[in-house]
Amino acid sequence: MDELDRQLINRLQHGLPLVRQPWEALAEELGSNSATLRARVQALLDDGTLTRFGPMFDIERLGGAFTLAALSVPEERFDEVAAVLEAMPEVAHNYRREHAWNMWFVLGCATPEGIAETIARIEAETGLAVLNLPKEETYHVGLHFAV
Amino acid sequence: MSDCISPSDLALAQRLVALTEAGLPLVEDPWAWLADELGIEVDEALALLQRLQASGAIRRIAAVPNHYRLGYRHNGMTVWDVDDAEIERLGALIGAQPFVSHCYRRPRQDGWRYNLFAMVHGRSADYIEAYRNQIRALLGNACRADEMLVSSRILKKTGLRIAAGRAGAGR
Q: Which domain, by its residues, includes B46?
Protein backbone atom coordinates (compact mmCIF):
# COMPACT_ATOMS: atom_id res chain seq x y z
CA MET A 1 0.00 0.00 0.00
CA ASP A 2 1.59 3.30 -1.07
CA GLU A 3 0.73 6.90 -0.35
CA LEU A 4 -1.81 7.15 -3.19
CA ASP A 5 -3.61 4.03 -1.91
CA ARG A 6 -3.74 5.57 1.57
CA GLN A 7 -5.10 8.87 0.26
CA LEU A 8 -7.64 7.04 -1.86
CA ILE A 9 -8.89 4.86 1.02
CA ASN A 10 -9.23 7.85 3.33
CA ARG A 11 -10.88 10.01 0.67
CA LEU A 12 -13.29 7.37 -0.63
CA GLN A 13 -14.64 6.60 2.83
CA HIS A 14 -16.16 10.09 2.65
CA GLY A 15 -17.77 9.32 -0.67
CA LEU A 16 -17.51 9.95 -4.38
CA PRO A 17 -18.50 13.54 -5.26
CA LEU A 18 -21.91 13.71 -6.93
CA VAL A 19 -20.74 15.71 -9.92
CA ARG A 20 -21.07 14.85 -13.60
CA GLN A 21 -17.52 13.41 -13.86
CA PRO A 22 -16.77 12.09 -10.36
CA TRP A 23 -13.54 10.22 -11.15
CA GLU A 24 -12.15 13.24 -12.99
CA ALA A 25 -12.95 15.41 -9.99
CA LEU A 26 -11.27 12.97 -7.64
CA ALA A 27 -8.22 12.68 -9.90
CA GLU A 28 -7.83 16.44 -9.88
CA GLU A 29 -8.14 16.50 -6.09
CA LEU A 30 -5.53 13.78 -5.58
CA GLY A 31 -3.22 14.84 -8.42
CA SER A 32 -3.66 11.59 -10.30
CA ASN A 33 -5.73 10.47 -13.25
CA SER A 34 -9.10 8.81 -13.26
CA ALA A 35 -8.09 5.52 -14.91
CA THR A 36 -5.28 5.05 -12.37
CA LEU A 37 -7.62 5.72 -9.46
CA ARG A 38 -10.18 3.21 -10.71
CA ALA A 39 -7.46 0.60 -11.24
CA ARG A 40 -6.24 1.22 -7.67
CA VAL A 41 -9.75 0.80 -6.25
CA GLN A 42 -10.15 -2.45 -8.21
CA ALA A 43 -6.82 -3.73 -6.86
CA LEU A 44 -7.81 -2.81 -3.27
CA LEU A 45 -11.10 -4.68 -3.75
CA ASP A 46 -9.29 -7.68 -5.27
CA ASP A 47 -6.79 -7.97 -2.43
CA GLY A 48 -9.49 -7.56 0.23
CA THR A 49 -8.38 -4.18 1.64
CA LEU A 50 -11.77 -2.81 0.60
CA THR A 51 -14.87 -4.96 1.00
CA ARG A 52 -17.15 -2.90 -1.23
CA PHE A 53 -17.38 0.28 -3.24
CA GLY A 54 -20.84 1.66 -3.93
CA PRO A 55 -23.87 3.47 -2.53
CA MET A 56 -24.39 3.04 1.20
CA PHE A 57 -28.11 3.07 1.82
CA ASP A 58 -29.97 3.92 4.99
CA ILE A 59 -32.10 0.97 4.21
CA GLU A 60 -34.77 1.78 6.78
CA ARG A 61 -35.64 4.87 4.76
CA LEU A 62 -36.35 2.59 1.83
CA GLY A 63 -39.01 0.63 3.66
CA GLY A 64 -37.14 -2.09 5.48
CA ALA A 65 -37.32 -2.96 9.17
CA PHE A 66 -34.33 -3.88 11.30
CA THR A 67 -33.43 -4.81 14.82
CA LEU A 68 -30.50 -5.88 16.98
CA ALA A 69 -31.27 -9.01 18.97
CA ALA A 70 -29.49 -11.43 21.26
CA LEU A 71 -29.73 -14.93 22.62
CA SER A 72 -28.26 -16.49 25.72
CA VAL A 73 -27.19 -19.87 24.38
CA PRO A 74 -25.96 -22.73 26.57
CA GLU A 75 -22.35 -23.57 25.51
CA GLU A 76 -23.20 -27.11 24.48
CA ARG A 77 -25.87 -25.84 22.09
CA PHE A 78 -23.91 -22.90 20.67
CA ASP A 79 -23.00 -24.34 17.25
CA GLU A 80 -26.44 -25.85 16.75
CA VAL A 81 -28.17 -22.49 17.40
CA ALA A 82 -25.62 -20.62 15.23
CA ALA A 83 -26.53 -23.00 12.39
CA VAL A 84 -30.25 -22.19 12.81
CA LEU A 85 -29.49 -18.46 12.37
CA GLU A 86 -27.01 -19.13 9.55
CA ALA A 87 -29.81 -20.70 7.52
CA MET A 88 -32.21 -17.78 7.96
CA PRO A 89 -32.01 -15.09 5.21
CA GLU A 90 -33.40 -12.48 7.64
CA VAL A 91 -30.21 -12.72 9.76
CA ALA A 92 -27.64 -10.23 8.38
CA HIS A 93 -24.82 -10.43 10.92
CA ASN A 94 -24.25 -12.74 13.83
CA TYR A 95 -21.42 -12.39 16.35
CA ARG A 96 -20.36 -14.30 19.40
CA ARG A 97 -19.77 -11.87 22.26
CA GLU A 98 -18.33 -12.69 25.65
CA HIS A 99 -21.32 -12.13 27.91
CA ALA A 100 -24.28 -14.07 29.36
CA TRP A 101 -26.06 -12.85 26.19
CA ASN A 102 -23.48 -14.54 23.99
CA MET A 103 -25.02 -14.43 20.50
CA TRP A 104 -25.81 -11.04 18.90
CA PHE A 105 -27.42 -10.67 15.52
CA VAL A 106 -29.11 -8.16 13.24
CA LEU A 107 -32.43 -8.98 11.57
CA GLY A 108 -33.54 -7.29 8.36
CA CYS A 109 -37.07 -7.76 6.98
CA ALA A 110 -39.30 -5.98 4.50
CA THR A 111 -41.83 -5.06 7.21
CA PRO A 112 -42.03 -4.64 11.02
CA GLU A 113 -44.40 -7.64 11.08
CA GLY A 114 -41.61 -9.65 9.44
CA ILE A 115 -39.34 -8.87 12.40
CA ALA A 116 -41.93 -10.09 14.91
CA GLU A 117 -42.55 -13.26 12.89
CA THR A 118 -38.83 -13.95 12.55
CA ILE A 119 -38.27 -13.54 16.29
CA ALA A 120 -41.19 -15.88 16.99
CA ARG A 121 -39.69 -18.43 14.58
CA ILE A 122 -36.25 -18.23 16.22
CA GLU A 123 -37.83 -18.74 19.64
CA ALA A 124 -39.87 -21.71 18.38
CA GLU A 125 -36.89 -23.36 16.63
CA THR A 126 -34.38 -22.86 19.44
CA GLY A 127 -36.59 -22.86 22.53
CA LEU A 128 -34.64 -19.77 23.69
CA ALA A 129 -35.99 -16.29 24.51
CA VAL A 130 -34.86 -13.52 22.12
CA LEU A 131 -33.74 -10.19 23.58
CA ASN A 132 -35.08 -7.68 21.05
CA LEU A 133 -33.40 -4.25 21.08
CA PRO A 134 -34.68 -2.15 18.15
CA LYS A 135 -32.97 1.22 17.96
CA GLU A 136 -35.02 4.13 19.24
CA GLU A 137 -32.62 6.91 18.31
CA THR A 138 -29.52 7.16 16.14
CA TYR A 139 -26.82 9.45 17.51
CA HIS A 140 -24.11 8.53 15.05
CA VAL A 141 -23.36 6.17 12.18
CA GLY A 142 -20.12 6.54 10.32
CA LEU A 143 -17.26 4.18 10.11
CA HIS A 144 -14.09 5.96 9.20
CA PHE A 145 -10.79 4.19 9.56
CA ALA A 146 -7.79 6.39 8.94
CA VAL A 147 -4.85 4.66 7.27
CA MET B 1 -32.22 16.29 6.36
CA SER B 2 -35.63 15.90 4.80
CA ASP B 3 -37.82 12.93 5.59
CA CYS B 4 -39.52 13.12 2.23
CA ILE B 5 -38.74 10.63 -0.49
CA SER B 6 -41.28 10.73 -3.30
CA PRO B 7 -42.94 7.42 -4.25
CA SER B 8 -41.26 7.48 -7.68
CA ASP B 9 -37.83 8.07 -6.11
CA LEU B 10 -38.53 5.30 -3.62
CA ALA B 11 -39.26 2.87 -6.45
CA LEU B 12 -36.06 3.90 -8.27
CA ALA B 13 -34.06 3.69 -5.04
CA GLN B 14 -35.25 0.15 -4.45
CA ARG B 15 -34.07 -0.82 -7.95
CA LEU B 16 -30.79 0.95 -7.20
CA VAL B 17 -30.30 -1.20 -4.09
CA ALA B 18 -30.66 -4.35 -6.18
CA LEU B 19 -28.48 -3.00 -9.02
CA THR B 20 -25.60 -2.03 -6.75
CA GLU B 21 -25.74 -4.90 -4.28
CA ALA B 22 -22.28 -6.02 -5.44
CA GLY B 23 -21.12 -2.40 -5.73
CA LEU B 24 -20.89 0.34 -8.32
CA PRO B 25 -18.96 -0.64 -11.48
CA LEU B 26 -15.58 1.09 -11.72
CA VAL B 27 -16.23 2.78 -15.05
CA GLU B 28 -15.32 6.31 -16.12
CA ASP B 29 -18.97 7.41 -16.20
CA PRO B 30 -20.84 5.49 -13.48
CA TRP B 31 -23.93 7.72 -13.73
CA ALA B 32 -24.30 6.82 -17.42
CA TRP B 33 -24.17 3.15 -16.45
CA LEU B 34 -26.85 3.71 -13.79
CA ALA B 35 -29.01 5.75 -16.18
CA ASP B 36 -28.81 2.95 -18.71
CA GLU B 37 -29.80 0.31 -16.17
CA LEU B 38 -32.69 2.42 -14.85
CA GLY B 39 -33.86 3.52 -18.30
CA ILE B 40 -33.51 7.26 -17.56
CA GLU B 41 -31.30 10.09 -18.79
CA VAL B 42 -27.88 10.51 -17.23
CA ASP B 43 -28.71 13.93 -15.78
CA GLU B 44 -31.83 12.46 -14.19
CA ALA B 45 -29.74 9.65 -12.67
CA LEU B 46 -27.31 12.13 -11.14
CA ALA B 47 -30.17 14.31 -9.86
CA LEU B 48 -31.80 11.21 -8.34
CA LEU B 49 -28.57 10.36 -6.47
CA GLN B 50 -28.31 13.94 -5.24
CA ARG B 51 -31.92 13.87 -3.95
CA LEU B 52 -31.44 10.48 -2.28
CA GLN B 53 -28.24 11.67 -0.62
CA ALA B 54 -29.87 14.92 0.52
CA SER B 55 -32.78 12.98 2.05
CA GLY B 56 -30.44 10.56 3.81
CA ALA B 57 -31.61 7.48 1.87
CA ILE B 58 -28.05 7.24 0.52
CA ARG B 59 -25.43 8.12 3.12
CA ARG B 60 -22.68 8.34 0.51
CA ILE B 61 -21.23 6.45 -2.42
CA ALA B 62 -18.16 5.19 -0.72
CA ALA B 63 -15.49 2.60 -0.15
CA VAL B 64 -15.92 0.24 2.78
CA PRO B 65 -12.56 -0.89 4.13
CA ASN B 66 -11.97 -4.26 5.69
CA HIS B 67 -11.09 -2.84 9.09
CA TYR B 68 -9.29 -6.02 10.15
CA ARG B 69 -6.95 -5.60 7.20
CA LEU B 70 -6.28 -1.99 8.16
CA GLY B 71 -5.16 -3.05 11.61
CA TYR B 72 -8.39 -2.29 13.50
CA ARG B 73 -8.67 -5.81 14.84
CA HIS B 74 -10.44 -5.06 18.10
CA ASN B 75 -14.00 -3.93 18.58
CA GLY B 76 -16.18 -3.59 21.61
CA MET B 77 -19.88 -2.98 21.94
CA THR B 78 -20.02 -0.71 24.97
CA VAL B 79 -23.42 -0.53 26.67
CA TRP B 80 -24.46 2.01 29.26
CA ASP B 81 -27.33 2.48 31.71
CA VAL B 82 -27.87 6.22 31.34
CA ASP B 83 -30.36 8.44 33.14
CA ASP B 84 -33.35 8.83 30.76
CA ALA B 85 -33.50 12.56 31.48
CA GLU B 86 -29.98 13.03 30.12
CA ILE B 87 -29.71 10.49 27.36
CA GLU B 88 -30.49 12.79 24.41
CA ARG B 89 -27.68 15.18 25.29
CA LEU B 90 -25.22 12.47 26.26
CA GLY B 91 -26.06 10.23 23.30
CA ALA B 92 -25.18 13.06 20.92
CA LEU B 93 -21.97 13.74 22.87
CA ILE B 94 -20.82 10.11 22.80
CA GLY B 95 -21.81 9.74 19.14
CA ALA B 96 -19.55 12.69 18.30
CA GLN B 97 -16.40 11.00 19.66
CA PRO B 98 -14.05 10.09 16.80
CA PHE B 99 -13.51 6.52 18.03
CA VAL B 100 -17.26 5.71 18.10
CA SER B 101 -18.53 4.22 14.83
CA HIS B 102 -22.17 3.62 15.78
CA CYS B 103 -24.16 5.08 18.65
CA TYR B 104 -27.80 4.33 19.39
CA ARG B 105 -30.45 4.50 22.08
CA ARG B 106 -32.20 1.15 22.55
CA PRO B 107 -34.93 0.04 24.94
CA ARG B 108 -34.35 -1.51 28.35
CA GLN B 109 -35.89 -4.98 28.66
CA ASP B 110 -36.34 -7.61 31.35
CA GLY B 111 -32.82 -8.87 31.94
CA TRP B 112 -31.27 -5.91 30.07
CA ARG B 113 -30.74 -2.56 31.80
CA TYR B 114 -28.63 -0.69 29.21
CA ASN B 115 -30.15 2.01 26.99
CA LEU B 116 -27.08 3.52 25.26
CA PHE B 117 -24.93 1.57 22.80
CA ALA B 118 -21.62 2.80 21.41
CA MET B 119 -19.39 0.68 19.18
CA VAL B 120 -15.67 1.35 19.48
CA HIS B 121 -12.84 0.11 17.25
CA GLY B 122 -9.12 0.07 17.86
CA ARG B 123 -5.79 -1.43 16.92
CA SER B 124 -5.39 -3.19 20.27
CA ALA B 125 -7.35 -4.27 23.33
CA ASP B 126 -5.69 -1.40 25.25
CA TYR B 127 -7.10 1.14 22.81
CA ILE B 128 -10.69 0.00 23.17
CA GLU B 129 -10.35 -0.18 26.96
CA ALA B 130 -9.06 3.42 26.91
CA TYR B 131 -11.98 4.51 24.70
CA ARG B 132 -14.38 2.89 27.14
CA ASN B 133 -12.81 4.87 29.98
CA GLN B 134 -13.15 8.09 27.99
CA ILE B 135 -16.86 7.41 27.48
CA ARG B 136 -17.26 6.64 31.17
CA ALA B 137 -15.67 9.98 32.05
CA LEU B 138 -17.95 11.85 29.65
CA LEU B 139 -21.09 10.21 31.05
CA GLY B 140 -20.11 10.87 34.66
CA ASN B 141 -22.82 10.40 37.26
CA ALA B 142 -25.57 10.08 34.65
CA CYS B 143 -24.34 6.53 34.06
CA ARG B 144 -25.26 3.89 36.66
CA ALA B 145 -23.62 0.82 35.10
CA ASP B 146 -21.84 -0.30 31.98
CA GLU B 147 -20.32 -3.28 30.25
CA MET B 148 -18.22 -3.89 27.17
CA LEU B 149 -19.12 -6.88 25.02
CA VAL B 150 -16.14 -7.93 22.95
CA SER B 151 -16.77 -9.98 19.85
CA SER B 152 -14.79 -13.20 19.77
CA ARG B 153 -16.13 -14.82 16.60
CA ILE B 154 -17.96 -13.75 13.45
CA LEU B 155 -20.68 -16.36 12.99
CA LYS B 156 -22.34 -14.81 9.94
CA LYS B 157 -21.78 -11.67 7.90
CA THR B 158 -23.88 -11.21 4.80
CA GLY B 159 -24.68 -7.52 5.17
CA LEU B 160 -28.01 -5.79 5.44
CA ARG B 161 -30.44 -6.12 2.62
CA ILE B 162 -34.10 -5.53 2.20
CA ALA B 163 -35.66 -8.98 2.34
CA ALA B 164 -36.64 -10.41 -1.03
CA GLY B 165 -40.34 -9.56 -0.78
CA ARG B 166 -39.73 -5.91 -1.42
CA ALA B 167 -36.36 -5.43 -3.10
CA GLY B 168 -37.09 -8.19 -5.57
CA ALA B 169 -40.39 -6.64 -6.62
CA GLY B 170 -38.72 -4.08 -8.85
CA ARG B 171 -36.63 -6.58 -10.79
A: 7-64
